[in-house]
Amino acid sequence: MPSCDICGTSGRLVRALVEGTEMSVCEGCSKYGKVLQTSVTFVKKTEEVKKVIKKPEVVTIIMDGYGRKVKKAREKLGLTQEELGKKVNERESVLQGIENEKTKPDLETARKLEKALGITLVEQFEDEGTVVRGKQTKEFTLGDMIKLRKR
Predict the structure, then answer these.
(1) Quick one: 88 and 108 in the same domain?
(2) 101: domain CATH number?
(3) Which of 98, 49, 51 is nearest to 70 (CA)?
């Protein structure tokens, strides 16, 4: 049941302009402002929570310990950094930075190293989607009116 915006009393309400704000007040509180309407019909406020579906997102990352993996695989194949650099079309200094883990390879370089060395450096994770749906019903309150005015 609706209640007075000033004192909270339940019962018959009227619309009144109180200090420049239109409010639903009881007959007792209507003396604090100018009565605009004698009877008030309340409609419940319904917020529609839209169906939100997040599509699964694929996240690609370079694995931890990528430098050790690259160095170990390169040495296993008997390649120098210079030879590997020519094979993957990268400078020797870039490969040094990657092996020391001072430089993280971009996705393209990591893929080239994977192919040349026969190792896995890139991991893919799939973020699961979520579904939210439903309705929320509540009465329009003074607090809602304040939120509307702030916007």
Answers:
(1) yes
(2) 1.10.260.40
(3) 98
The residue among 63, 65, 64, 105 whose CA lies nearest residue 84 is: 105
Range of the domain at 64: 57-127
Instruction: Specify the pTM.
Output: 0.48
The pLDDT of residue 144 is 63
Per-residue pLDDT tens over the stretch 93-145: 999 999 999 999 999 999 999 999 999 998 887 766 554 444 454 566 666 66
Domain assignment of residue 113, yes or no: yes
Give me the pLDDT at residue 43, please.
52
Burial 111-148 (b: 16+ CB within 10 A, else e): ebbbebbebebeeeeeeeeeeeeeeeeeeeeeeeeeee
